[in-house]
Amino acid sequence: MTKQIHLAAHFPGVNNTTVWSDPASGSHIEFDSFREFAQIAEAGKLDFIFLAEGLRLREQNDRIYDLDVVGRPDTFTVLAALAAVTERIGLTGTINSTFNEPYEVARQFASLDHLSDGRAAWNVVTSWDAFTGENFRRGGFLAQADRYDRAKSFLATAIELFESWRGDEVVADKDGGRFLADPHPGAFAHRDPFFDIAGQFDVPRSPQGRPVVFQAGDSDEGRDFAAAAADVIFSRHSTLEAGQAFYADVKGRLPRFGRSRDELLIMPAATFVLGDTEAEAAELAQEVRLAQVSPATAITFLEQLWNRDLSDHDPDGPLPSVDPVVGENTIARGRASVRMHRDPVATANEWRAKAEAEHLTTRELIVEVTGRQSFIGTPATVAATIDEFVQSDASDGFVLAPHITPGGLAPFVEQVVPLLQERGVFRTDYEGTTLRDHLGLPLRDRDQGARTLAG
């Protein structure tokens, strides 16, 4: 059976995806950038747009990391504003489960789901570092090993709140609108080692029953967390083979939680570079990667692994001959990439072997190891490759991150989407009104997610 492809768009935040130096790059603060980006995605009939979250400006050598200086507006504020200038596109925001509270987050997402007529989604993440926690009342108290336990409790509590209003189920009127028949609030009480709350939730059950839940995590705990209660999981696996292995593993976990394979979508992040010919696209892709990883940025990434000041290192020379400093990372504070290197010395040796075998300078090596899954080629090639990944069960679709914001998504929408539509694997128009409709996800049974997480 031919699968339908799911596509979404990520408005890149404070990272090296965006080519800041390009004259076409717009503001990451002004609302017009977010509006233009969302409307381009909606014109392409994409499932949703996605905003990441940053809870603290990151530091490098006791200075604000250069790609963070731009900052990031509040996620809920931007998504609520976008609900007023779009009609169908889903609105997904990352909100942290480590440094927020279930009642507040549930109330905000339920409100967004009402404001958008059922287009809200929550990407549930955890924070691992005390550096970020210093901005919050509980700064640094939560052990890394406890973060998924808190996240499970947080999500289960939020689901209890979403579904605490009692009455008939969500129904549709003759105009397609959805509402809760004969609603009345219900009491909630949740007590466990993380939360001790009770009362009445003050936002009626929303048009989707509850917002769509996203999760991003590659550890065993993360995969189980997604299999238990998420509707969509983000993946970072970039090759067909790695994608298929991840897909089979996560989908294989679903029966343990009483769920079927179609109840969880897998959508890796992906970049793209288009050209009139394969050679032109490859040349442009190399230019983009070099713009994304300037000499200064290459040293920044190098210091994150080596955990030492390398400001005097030549980015056009070989990798450092000294080994990384093992232990607490005091150079790159709050950088998510740091925790991915569980054995810095082993990673450094892998990088050295790759650089020697391929005759790469430090900067060229960083370009290679920091690159995401990229679709590079003519629109026809890119469309065929995306279709192959989905039909081969390496993913259910992709979350696209253009290197130019906000207009960089337009070439994909204008050139690749029509080819996928011609193949019959992507919609030509929205068939429903909610994000669950776009994703092909049913309304969850009342309390199902909370029961699964609790059990």
From TrEMBL:
<dbReference type="Pfam" id="PF00296">
    <property type="entry name" value="Bac_luciferase"/>
</dbReference>
<keyword id="KW-0560">Oxidoreductase</keyword>
<dbReference type="InterPro" id="IPR036661">
    <property type="entry name" value="Luciferase-like_sf"/>
</dbReference>
<dbReference type="GO" id="GO:0004497">
    <property type="term" value="F:monooxygenase activity"/>
</dbReference>
<keyword id="KW-0285">Flavoprotein</keyword>
<comment type="similarity">
    <text>Belongs to the NtaA/SnaA/DszA monooxygenase family.</text>
</comment>
<protein>
    <submittedName>
        <fullName>NtaA/DmoA family FMN-dependent monooxygenase</fullName>
        <ecNumber>1.14.-.-</ecNumber>
    </submittedName>
</protein>
<dbReference type="InterPro" id="IPR011251">
    <property type="entry name" value="Luciferase-like_dom"/>
</dbReference>
<dbReference type="InterPro" id="IPR016215">
    <property type="entry name" value="NTA_MOA"/>
</dbReference>
<feature type="domain" description="Luciferase-like">
    <location>
        <begin position="23"/>
        <end position="392"/>
    </location>
</feature>
<keyword id="KW-0288">FMN</keyword>
<dbReference type="InterPro" id="IPR051260">
    <property type="entry name" value="Diverse_substr_monoxygenases"/>
</dbReference>
<keyword id="KW-0503">Monooxygenase</keyword>
